[in-house]
Design brief:
Length: 80
Protein backbone atom coordinates (compact mmCIF):
# COMPACT_ATOMS: atom_id res chain seq x y z
CA UNK A 1 0.00 0.00 0.00
CA UNK A 2 1.44 3.35 -1.05
CA UNK A 3 0.57 6.40 1.02
CA UNK A 4 1.19 9.98 -0.07
CA UNK A 5 2.11 12.33 2.70
CA UNK A 6 1.01 15.95 2.53
CA UNK A 7 3.88 18.37 2.30
CA UNK A 8 4.47 20.69 5.25
CA UNK A 9 6.22 23.12 2.95
CA UNK A 10 4.09 26.21 2.41
CA UNK A 11 4.09 27.98 -0.91
CA UNK A 12 4.88 31.66 -0.94
CA UNK A 13 1.97 33.97 -1.79
CA UNK A 14 1.93 35.16 -5.39
CA UNK A 15 1.75 38.64 -6.88
CA UNK A 16 -1.52 40.36 -6.00
CA UNK A 17 -2.21 38.14 -3.01
CA UNK A 18 -2.48 39.25 0.59
CA UNK A 19 0.38 38.12 2.79
CA UNK A 20 1.98 38.84 6.13
CA UNK A 21 5.51 40.09 6.69
CA UNK A 22 6.09 38.20 9.92
CA UNK A 23 9.22 40.20 10.78
CA UNK A 24 7.26 43.48 10.80
CA UNK A 25 3.91 41.97 11.77
CA UNK A 26 2.32 43.79 8.79
CA UNK A 27 -0.19 42.59 6.24
CA UNK A 28 0.11 43.76 2.66
CA UNK A 29 -0.27 42.89 -0.99
CA UNK A 30 2.62 41.13 -2.72
CA UNK A 31 3.70 43.40 -5.58
CA UNK A 32 6.69 41.46 -6.89
CA UNK A 33 10.25 40.38 -6.21
CA UNK A 34 13.45 42.25 -6.91
CA UNK A 35 17.01 41.72 -5.73
CA UNK A 36 16.12 38.78 -3.52
CA UNK A 37 13.43 40.73 -1.66
CA UNK A 38 9.65 40.68 -1.85
CA UNK A 39 8.00 44.06 -2.42
CA UNK A 40 4.82 44.52 -0.42
CA UNK A 41 2.33 47.37 -0.34
CA UNK A 42 -0.13 48.22 2.46
CA UNK A 43 -3.66 47.00 1.76
CA UNK A 44 -5.05 50.52 1.48
CA UNK A 45 -2.18 51.67 -0.72
CA UNK A 46 0.92 53.62 0.12
CA UNK A 47 4.63 53.09 -0.04
CA UNK A 48 5.96 49.62 -0.70
CA UNK A 49 8.41 47.98 1.64
CA UNK A 50 10.91 45.19 1.10
CA UNK A 51 10.53 41.94 2.98
CA UNK A 52 12.81 38.93 3.33
CA UNK A 53 11.18 36.09 1.36
CA UNK A 54 11.33 33.68 4.31
CA UNK A 55 9.30 36.17 6.38
CA UNK A 56 6.46 36.46 3.84
CA UNK A 57 3.71 34.00 4.72
CA UNK A 58 0.21 33.33 3.48
CA UNK A 59 -2.63 34.54 5.65
CA UNK A 60 -4.94 32.15 7.40
CA UNK A 61 -8.60 32.34 6.38
CA UNK A 62 -9.51 34.31 9.50
CA UNK A 63 -6.63 36.80 9.07
CA UNK A 64 -7.53 37.38 5.43
CA UNK A 65 -11.22 37.91 6.17
CA UNK A 66 -10.36 40.33 8.97
CA UNK A 67 -7.99 42.32 6.73
CA UNK A 68 -10.51 42.53 3.88
CA UNK A 69 -13.29 43.55 6.26
CA UNK A 70 -11.12 46.31 7.74
CA UNK A 71 -10.53 47.69 4.23
CA UNK A 72 -14.27 47.56 3.42
CA UNK A 73 -15.15 49.29 6.69
CA UNK A 74 -12.56 51.99 6.04
CA UNK A 75 -13.86 52.51 2.49
CA UNK A 76 -17.47 52.82 3.67
CA UNK A 77 -16.48 55.53 6.14
CA UNK A 78 -14.76 57.58 3.44
CA UNK A 79 -17.59 57.17 0.92
CA UNK A 80 -15.78 54.84 -1.49
Amino acid sequence: MLLCMASNQQTRPGIGELAKDSARDRIGVVMGEFGGRVQMRPIRGGLEWDAVPDNVVALGAREELSARLAVKNGNSLSGL
